[in-house]
């Protein structure tokens, strides 16, 4: 459970440099660490020419660009090897679009199969490339931890240029060039680019050094892919990323990609008003569904096709398999809940598995179980290569990576972030996993010392404060995401005018409130139909509501509403 705090009032002195802005804007900027007039102007008015860094500040960029230009000049066969997720696929599209623009045809995109090959840069694929007389491989969003595979490529006479944004770990690859701002001695001023963002910097560099018939600024059309990846991969939306996403969303709204246009229509996104929520909750799941359920190359083809019929078929297909994915995840969640109901005791850590469960879907199922039971969850299944793999999610009470490190001999491999991770494990150790994790949890929880995560509310507002002027101020801070969260507001002692449940399973919540002019403001909460809320809700009752303010364009009718975060 989160513990909420309303931010302290800021003195006029501290806000002096922001005095040209409305009071709410001053406060929201200050709370986001933007405290000077110059920083405010930079944050509110991203400028492509001023805020996008020179790609040649990146280590090995010059070397990589020269090698690619040489390959083009000699007509060598090039492979673009990208990861299969919603960062690698858009990154692969960026380089595909570049080579297509310069009319270079001796190039092929390769995306490994999630179930048959798994994550990373694989020797088996490299050996097949050697048979095709490939002389250069450019990785996208992978490769920085695959030293052995790079060595194999070198043995076969293939140069490898790694573009990646993950932290180097273990043996450093002996690649021809490595483009990664997180590597040692890299002086690039911004370190948190997405994998597609790094691929974009490479494309920028090649265009700068190459003698191509390309209109100045053409590369900005590639920013739609950078925006999708930057938002979907949850990289911080600050610094250069903010500028890339800001312009990338503008490009998305005008993008002529036939597949993108078709998909937006199918899932009822107004392309001209697309925002970061549409990317994160609507586009990204369908792109990721391609690799979770079947072939990631289908998502790649959606973005590169110029064929209306193929675009129609691919958008239909991605939507269909995303619905199938939802159905499978729902059935896994149902099975888990049934098992939990039959337990004599629910332990501190929920550990469950089934060899028939597809590991790529278990993170989504774990999210649902964490939300329901507010305990750390570890779920496992068996992948296409007969390996037991799983996903884990934390309720905020413990750092999962530290928890797994304490019992690292239990796992074949593990990794991730504090609250989200993955692991692989032997058939023998799976039988002891529940007991081992419940023991390590106690120690990890003591070290984490985090029974309640602190969440900050930006300001107290009244229902009558919800108007287009207020929204206009908030909108200027977009795009929102990691590092720049949506502003949160506390509405105290507000009376519920109406309660509705909607959706196929009636698991979404709508609360209506009346303003003084009798106009209705609705508050929407998806998957908020649960016992803890229902006990607080009754028509005519007064509640304290924590929510963000958003614009809905449902049925192309713009209206303001609240997005429920919590009810106190």
From TrEMBL:
<comment type="similarity">
    <text>Belongs to the RecJ family.</text>
</comment>
<feature type="domain" description="DHHA1">
    <location>
        <begin position="348"/>
        <end position="431"/>
    </location>
</feature>
<keyword id="KW-0540">Nuclease</keyword>
<dbReference type="GO" id="GO:0006281">
    <property type="term" value="P:DNA repair"/>
</dbReference>
<dbReference type="Pfam" id="PF01368">
    <property type="entry name" value="DHH"/>
</dbReference>
<dbReference type="InterPro" id="IPR038763">
    <property type="entry name" value="DHH_sf"/>
</dbReference>
<dbReference type="Pfam" id="PF17768">
    <property type="entry name" value="RecJ_OB"/>
</dbReference>
<dbReference type="InterPro" id="IPR041122">
    <property type="entry name" value="RecJ_OB"/>
</dbReference>
<dbReference type="Pfam" id="PF02272">
    <property type="entry name" value="DHHA1"/>
</dbReference>
<dbReference type="InterPro" id="IPR051673">
    <property type="entry name" value="SSDNA_exonuclease_RecJ"/>
</dbReference>
<feature type="domain" description="DDH">
    <location>
        <begin position="77"/>
        <end position="230"/>
    </location>
</feature>
<protein>
    <recommendedName>
        <fullName>Single-stranded-DNA-specific exonuclease RecJ</fullName>
    </recommendedName>
</protein>
<dbReference type="InterPro" id="IPR001667">
    <property type="entry name" value="DDH_dom"/>
</dbReference>
<dbReference type="GO" id="GO:0008409">
    <property type="term" value="F:5'-3' exonuclease activity"/>
</dbReference>
<keyword id="KW-0269">Exonuclease</keyword>
<feature type="domain" description="RecJ OB">
    <location>
        <begin position="457"/>
        <end position="566"/>
    </location>
</feature>
<dbReference type="InterPro" id="IPR003156">
    <property type="entry name" value="DHHA1_dom"/>
</dbReference>
<dbReference type="InterPro" id="IPR004610">
    <property type="entry name" value="RecJ"/>
</dbReference>
<dbReference type="GO" id="GO:0006310">
    <property type="term" value="P:DNA recombination"/>
</dbReference>
<dbReference type="GO" id="GO:0003676">
    <property type="term" value="F:nucleic acid binding"/>
</dbReference>
<keyword id="KW-0378">Hydrolase</keyword>
């Amino acid at each position: 459970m989160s513990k909420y705090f309303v931010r302290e009032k800021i003195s006029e002195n501290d806000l002096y440099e922001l005095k040209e802005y409305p009071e709410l804007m001053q406060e929201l900027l200050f709370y986001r660490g933007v405290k000077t007039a110059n920083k405010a102007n930079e944050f509110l008015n991203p400028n492509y020419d001023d805020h996008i860094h020179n790609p040649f500040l990146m280590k090995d960029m010059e070397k990589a660009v020269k090698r690619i230009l040489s390959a083009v000049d000699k007509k060598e066969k090039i492979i673009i090897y990208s990861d299969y997720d919603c960062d690698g696929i858009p990154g692969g599209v960026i380089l595909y679009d570049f080579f297509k623009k310069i009319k270079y045809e001796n190039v092929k995109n390769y995306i490994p199969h999630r179930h048959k090959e798994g994550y990373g840069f694989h020797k088996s694929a490299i050996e097949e490339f050697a048979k095709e007389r490939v002389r250069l491989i450019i990785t996208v969003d992978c490769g920085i931890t695959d030293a052995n595979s790079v060595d194999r490529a070198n043995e076969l006479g293939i140069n490898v240029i790694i573009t990646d944004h993950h932290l180097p770990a273990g043996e450093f690859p002996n690649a021809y060039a490595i483009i990664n701002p997180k590597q040692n001695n890299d002086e690039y001023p911004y370190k948190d680019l997405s994998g597609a963002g790094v691929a974009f910097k490479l494309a920028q560099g090649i265009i700068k050094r190459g003698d191509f018939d390309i209109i100045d600024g053409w590369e900005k059309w590639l920013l739609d892919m950078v925006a999708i990846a930057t938002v979907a991969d949850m990289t911080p939306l600050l610094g250069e990323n903010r500028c890339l996403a800001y312009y990338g969303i503008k490009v998305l709204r005008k993008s002529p990609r036939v597949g993108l246009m078709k998909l937006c229509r199918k899932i009822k996104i107004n392309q001209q008003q697309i925002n970061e929520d549409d990317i994160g909750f609507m586009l990204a799941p369908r792109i990721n569904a391609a690799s979770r359920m079947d072939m990631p190359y289908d998502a790649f083809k959606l973005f590169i096709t110029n064929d209306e019929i193929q675009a129609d078929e691919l958008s239909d297909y991605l939507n269909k398999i995303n619905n199938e994915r939802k159905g499978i995840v729902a059935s896994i969640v149902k099975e888990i809940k049934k098992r939990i109901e039959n337990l004599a005791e629910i332990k501190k850590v929920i550990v469950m598995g089934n060899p028939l469960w597809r590991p790529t879907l278990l993170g989504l199922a774990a999210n649902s179980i964490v939300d329901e039971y507010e305990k750390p969850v570890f779920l496992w299944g068996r992948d296409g290569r007969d390996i037991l793999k799983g996903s884990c999610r934390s309720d905020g009470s413990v750092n999962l990576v530290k928890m797994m490190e304490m019992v690292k001999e239990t796992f074949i491999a593990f990794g991730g972030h504090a609250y989200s991770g993955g692991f692989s494990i032997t058939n023998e150790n799976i039988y002891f996993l529940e007991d081992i994790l419940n023991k390590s949890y106690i120690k990890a929880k003591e070290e984490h010392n985090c029974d309640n995560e602190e969440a900050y509310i930006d300001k107290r507002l009244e229902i009558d404060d919800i108007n287009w002027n207020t929204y206009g101020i908030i909108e200027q801070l977009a795009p929102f995401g990691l590092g720049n969260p949506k502003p949160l507001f506390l509405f105290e002692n507000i009376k519920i005018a109406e309660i509705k449940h909607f959706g196929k399973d009636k698991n979404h919540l709508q609360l209506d409130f009346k303003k003084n002019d009798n106009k209705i403001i609705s508050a929407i909460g998806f998957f908020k139909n649960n016992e803890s809320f229902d006990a607080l809700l009754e028509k005519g009752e007064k509640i304290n509501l924590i929510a963000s303010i958003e614009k809905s364009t449902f049925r192309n009718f713009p209206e303001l509403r609240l997005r429920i975060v919590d009810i106190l």
